[in-house]
Amino acid sequence: MRVLTGIQASGKLHIGNYFGAMKPMIELQESEELFTFIANYHSLTTSKDAKLLHQLTFDAAVDYLSLGIDPHKTTFWVQSDVPQVLELYWILSKFTSMGLLERAHSYKDKIAKGIAANHALFSYPVLMAADILLLDTQKVPVGKDQIQHVEMTRDIATKFNNEYGEIFTLPEHVVEEHVATIPGIDGQKMSKSYDNAIDIFMETEKKLQKRCNKIISSSTPMGEPLEYEGCNIYNIASLFLDENKKVELQKRYKTGEEGYGHFKKYLKELIWEEFAEAREKRAYYLEHPDMVKDILSDGAQKMQKIANAKMAIVRKAVGLY
Ligand code: ADP
Ligand code: TRP
Q1: Cβ distance 236 to 15 under 8 Å?
Q2: Could you report the per-residue pLDDT of 290-306, keeping only the tens digit for each?
Q3: Is 139 part of the annotated catalytic residue set?
Q4: Does 280 map to a domain?
């Protein structure tokens, strides 16, 4: 099965991103033909700073490689290294009605947030359709907010196919229903916009401990049994634990011999340990940026071949040859 995931590089990754999006993606590598790219053309719609966009693109590549994207299994590239997608975007634009784009939730949300309406923002779903259709993608794992974009892709592809023949594969979205919303240190959904996130790559163990210490917990006095249900510390810790370990932790809560401080320390240890290998890999890649560039360039080359072959078919179909 050909699966495509697009990453928006938007800065530091947190534990919610990891369990909600990255871990499921990394696991897919084992069973599917995975294609993953950094959507920097898409990021350009809201970027104002060239250096920052460039840096975030590189950082995202380093982080994803460190956390488990394996370039031997997965084709991994930067969107703008395969500009063929922009030609397809233009061709697909003709099969995209204004009404379809006007109904896009994510566009309306962005405008409501005060982001200036411009054509790139408006036509963003057509570029996403081009990403997906260029590759004959079968499945697109997405968050709920992106389902509509995959549906729009199907709509655009169907219109094209009706006119020019069965050129494009209709993709399906995959939403991980069972992935829970990971809570932040205040118990609300962890998000970089809410200042409640625990980042995956903290510089030092001490800083991670400080962040864990900020987790809001109830104020049961020392010596009394603690309730693990509804406890933010427990909820975050349980992401890292198998069933037996969860039961052990539940018992520790119930004895009343330990306070929240102990559990915050335990959580810090769990997080630090879970990402130990990724941290080492990341330090290595940061010292060897050329390795990262080579991996991305290999990925782009593989994609170039696929893109050229598909575009030859599309161009012929529409008469651009
Ligand atoms: P943020 O809310 O921090 O801005 P993004 O919107 O950039 O995060 O999310 C990137 C990916 O991580 C999405 O696929 C999203 O579903 C996932 N994700 C983000 N926060 C959480 C969370 N708290 N729980 C589960 N998944 C999350
Ligand atoms: N729009 C997606 C997001 O914001 C990123 C993206 C761009 C994408 N092109 C894609 C995702 C193609 C999947 C397939 O998360």
Answers
A1: yes
A2: 999 999 999 999 999 99
A3: no
A4: no
